[in-house]
Specification:
This protein has 400 residues and is α+β, with helices and mostly antiparallel strands. Helix content is 36%, strand content 27%. The protein has a five-stranded antiparallel β-sheet, sandwiched between helices. The longest helix is centred in the middle third of the chain and has 35 residues. The chain is elongated and about 105 Å long. 34% of the residues are buried.
């Protein structure tokens, strides 16, 4: 096909262009890619000027002297023998195969090659025609993409480690042992755990043999949520020393959040636990905008305990109500965040009904088994990748 010429081009110039384009030989020799013709065994029988310029060889160094596969690197020769040549014989063509050609001076030329096998009238292999495209720029682009991907993966890994480290500073590594109380706790971050979540819990000892337990959820995720989480945990620890009333602790935390000017609200359940060898486990608790705890008895009956209260860090004058719960042997008190009941799969929530049913099935198990089973089932419900953080704390009065 001749190149279109401009109407304004001088007649002599147009004639030169037409004559040049009509020359098949010139088109072959000076094509924008290298051309090779080889015998079926790879022996070079012709190479165009473009290929010679790309590789630095003279024609007499290649024709009837070298095979195409001899021009490849060691890995390329292995690939040629095990894949390239068999595919060419079987299919009659191979396309866009990436190889490195060893040039005359030892330099490696990244190339993309296409080959077509020509057969004679009897169907026997006769000739292989190969085009060679300089892929230096493309190979560098691919390498840069690979380097960028590697950097991104390394950055993601560092971010995940940082998130896990920060989260670990906000979540106890394991719940402490409370005399007379079986304690279990599980925290599971959303997704792959590469972002600091807003769920938290804490269990710590108070004066007079009592213990404090809290479980909460800060709006959102990331460093700003972690700031509010840290403020909530340490404010509660300080407030628990000042006041024995859970509702008062809620009030002190609410004031601290408002004073801090945090733009994220918080929900929380806070309780004081007293256990004595001669009686039931007594828990005084208050709830602030959080799902009410569940009491699971030894027969598998499940009911909510406590009274709803206002969110924390939203308004002054919010109110909370104290409630008292007694755990007789075999009873369990279960605190959990909304990542449990609101775990979603295809638009369907895991739901409070499933929570209660699972706890009823595990009513005879220990506290840690109950907490782990609940989280595991919610994760499985979401095909192994939870969309929200989850935290569960179980306090159980051991059976006699």
């Amino acid at each position: 096909m001749t190149e279109p010429t401009s109407a304004a081009a001088p007649p002599r110039r147009a004639a030169e262009i037409a004559q040049l384009e009509q020359s098949v030989e010139d088109l072959y020799e000076h094509a924008p890619c290298g051309y090779l013709s080889t015998l079926p065994d790879g022996t070079v029988i012709r190479a165009n000027a473009t290929f010679l310029a790309m590789t630095g060889y003279r024609a007499d160094e290649l024709v009837a002297v070298r095979r195409f596969q001899d021009l490849l690197t060691a890995g390329g020769r292995i690939y040629h023998e095990t894949h390239y040549a068999p595919l060419l014989r079987m299919q009659g063509t191979v396309r866009e195969i990436a190889v490195d050609i060893v040039c005359a001076g030892g330099r490696r030329l990244p190339a993309l090659v296409n080959s077509v096998l020509k057969r004679d009238a009897a169907g026997e292999p006769l000739l292989v025609r190969t085009t060679v495209f300089d892929a230096t720029d493309r190979r560098e682009y691919e390498r840069e993409l690979l380097r960028a991907r590697t950097r991104a993966e390394e950055s993601e890994a560092r971010a995940r480690v940082l998130a896990q480290t920060l989260q670990a500073s906000l979540i106890p590594p394991a719940p402490p042992e409370i005399p007379g109380v079986d304690v279990g706790a599980v925290y599971r971050p959303a997704g792959r755990g590469d972002e600091v979540g807003g769920d938290f819990y804490d269990v710590f000892q108070l004066a007079g043999g009592e213990w404090a337990v809290l479980l909460g959820d800060v709006q959102g995720k990331g460093p700003r949520a972690a700031t509010v989480t840290a403020l909530a945990r340490y404010t509660v620890r300080a407030a628990a020393i000042q006041s024995p009333q859970p509702s008062s602790v809620m009030g002190l935390l609410n004031a601290a959040l408002l004073r801090q000017g945090a733009d994220r609200f918080c929900t929380m359940v806070y309780g004081r636990v007293a256990a004595r060898a001669d009686g039931p486990v007594r828990v005084r608790l208050a709830c602030g905008g959080h799902a009410l705890p569940l009491l699971v008895d030894r027969r598998g009956q499940v009911r909510t305990v406590g009274a709803p209260g206002d969110l924390l860090g939203v308004i002054e004058g919010a109110s909370w109500e104290d409630a008292a719960v007694e755990l007789v042997p075999g009873d369990a008190l279960v605190l959990y965040t909304d990542g449990i009941s609101e775990g979603r799969r295809d638009g369907e929530f895991y739901g409070d009904g499933r929570v209660r049913a699972l706890l009823a099935r595990h009513c005879a198990d220990g506290a840690q088994v109950m907490a782990t089973a609940l989280v595991d089932e919610v994760v499985a419900f979401q095909h192994g990748l939870p969309r929200d953080d989850m935290a569960v704390v179980v306090l159980k009065a051991p059976a006699g």
